[in-house]
């Protein structure tokens, strides 16, 4: 639906019927007469409200023109690049005698675009975030959140003395926690080809230095994704959520890994719903061992009085 605003324009009347009751259609960019439907102006510009600003900096921040900022890019998407088409702004080919000069301009633009060490670290780090996020098929909002965490780490000079790949992996893990996208450290370490211990250490360091407020993960966060990979039905997933809620009410999840509890609840629910999966299948999806699943499901079955034959 397009946004319309009915108003009486000052000193503007419809040339067809003489009515002064006009409507601004901001979706179409038109000024329309409500009486006869004549389109008076088809290139109408929404001027917007007069936002209050006390200095030039506030006026610049509150400006509504230009492309939106993209924090997943090193330059936030604001820089311009000399293209390689060898054409001018009118689409005409650049003369051969000027192409050598244009080539030199492109080369020097690449050289001076990111001059300082921090800018180079930011460029390389964000490109690594994009690669790792693509490998893990993460959404755009997670990528932007990871880029923001990494950008703040560069601004506070937290990269010095640490592997840049480890900081990237830790930023992605923090972004997944912020956006409510459940991914374990084991999954990120496997995708980044780094030690889980190193990523966890860097993640705790960033959390402390950047004062990131992240809630601890719960087994419910992993149920949907694990059930999807195991191709379980909606009934099995609902039964798993019910088992997890009962376990949390009786404080059976305290001090235990959320992935292990979720895997045990899925194993029990799949058996109860007649969609049995082996412990090996569930363990591979959840990234835990079969021993962990056995210990957790025995405890859940006993404490929750679940009538299940395993």
State the strand order across the main sheet.
Answer: 1-2-3-4
How many strand units? 4
Mean pLDDT: 81
Structural class: mainly alpha
**Proportion of residues in extended strands:** 5-15%
Order of helices and strands: EEEEHHHHHHHHHHHH
In CATH, the homologous superfamily of the largest domain goes by the name Cyclin-like
The portion of residues assigned to helices is 40-55%
Low-pLDDT regions: 1-6
Name the assembly state. single chain
How would the global form be characterised?
extended
- CATH architectural designation of the largest domain: Orthogonal Bundle
Terminal Cα span: 56 Å
**Spatial extent as radius of gyration:** 29 Å
Could you give a short account of the major beta sheet? 4 strands, antiparallel
| CATH C-level of the largest domain | Mainly Alpha
Secondary-structure blueprint:
Layout (H helix, E strand, L loop, with lengths): L3 E5 L12 E5 L4 E4 L5 E3 L14 H6 L34 H18 L3 H19 L4 H16 L8 H16 L5 H8 L3 H14 L10 H10 L4 H16 L8 H15 L6 H8 L3 H14 L7
What does this structure look like?
With 310 residues, this protein is mainly alpha-helical. The chain has three domains: 65 residues, N-terminal domain of TfIIb, CATH 2.20.25; 93 residues, Orthogonal Bundle (Cyclin A, domain 1); 84 residues, Cyclin-like (Cyclin A, domain 1, Orthogonal Bundle). Helix content is 52%, strand content 5%. It has a four-stranded antiparallel sheet with strand order 1-2-3-4, with no helix packed on it. Helix 3 runs antiparallel to helix 4 and helix 5 packs antiparallel against helix 6. The longest helix is centred in the middle third of the chain and has 19 residues. The chain is extended and about 80 Å long. The two termini are 56 Å apart. The N terminus is likely disordered.
